[in-house]
Amino acid sequence: MRIPPLLAMAMTGALVACQSGSKTTPDPKLSANVPATSALTTIHGRATYLERIKMPPGADLVVQLVDNQLADTPQAVIASVRLDDVAGPPYEFTLPFDATKLRAGGMYGLHANLHGPDGELWFITDTRVPVTPGSSDVVEFRMVRVPGEGEAQPAASSPWEEAKARGIVFRGVGNEPGWFVEVGQGNAPTMRATLDYGERKVEVTGATPLSSTYGYGGKTADGALVVLRIKRETCSDGMSDERYPASAELKVGEQAYRGCGQFLQE
Known about the structure:
- This protein has one helix at residues 159-165; strands spanning 23-26, 40-48, 60-67, 77-84, 91-98, 108-115, 121-124, 129-131, 139-142, 144-145, 170-174, 179-183, 191-195, 200-204, 208-209, 214-219, 225-231, 235-236, 243-244, 246-252, 255-263.
- It is an all-beta fold.
- The protein has a 9-stranded antiparallel beta sheet with strand order 14-13-12-11-21-20-17-16-15, with no helix packed on it. Strands 1, 3, 4, 6, 7, 8 and 10 form a 7-stranded antiparallel beta sheet that branches.
- It starts with 22 loop residues before the first strand and ends with a strand.
């Protein structure tokens, strides 16, 4: 997800990343979320990855605080921060946010992406990292490598574009409880779903296309039946004005999840 060039955001005090040689830059598009009031609080975290790769000079890391119940809509991002000119992990960050933007009973997570100096997407969080805003705990998470090292890839502007860059064929999302599913490429693709605001994850390897409608089915390693049915029709997620070209129903065992989605490789 490529964030456009950032402007300075009025704040009391500069946000400084603990990463040596890097600095933290607030996202100007979310400057309204960072007022100079007592409602301003912070999340402290540490991002890393397993690969033995040192980022070239000019790389940047962007971390966002996301409302999981708004499922990838523009309204989902509550606050964002960028670390400029990062090298090797771990990347320690401080993310300020306006506590008045939080909803009672809300579920929240962190989303991060790491770009090279030319805008190429290198690492991302493949699922949202659960977080409790206001907690003093340091949130630690690991990012995964985007396939195609050394290949020019389009700058991603949303989780949908990031999924497309990773070769995902179909992505579906839903609310109450928050969930999303991604289907990979091939005649027998891998299907992964994150359910119940990130509390449960399921994976089907070698999913089979359904014969009666668009969709896929298969079983997890522990034998749970997973079926994804897709209809090409205009769909609204019910919590925002965002509209999608498809509706989706995901069944995991006896539990059904309904939402919207999009074919990403057409």
